[in-house]
Design a protein that fits this description.
The protein is of the alpha+beta class and 82 residues long.
Amino acid sequence: MALKDQTPTETLDVLGRVCPYPLVLTKKQLEKMASGSILKILCDAPASAEDSIPRFAEKQGYEFESVKLEDKGYWELYIKKS
């Protein structure tokens, strides 16, 4: 099942924040979460949504999915902490 189809454990809203805050806040939130939890991040900063957060998730070995909502102008990012 795709991460976006599962109920997230937590939702982090970083809309309006620019690099590096979305990544920093994502890391802090994930530190508090248990393994197997899913974090949904609302992000409108392209550098964070398309580069830094996906790269961080990959380095950590976390499952990652990105959904760009063109009509709303932001991304929904899903990270499953392993």
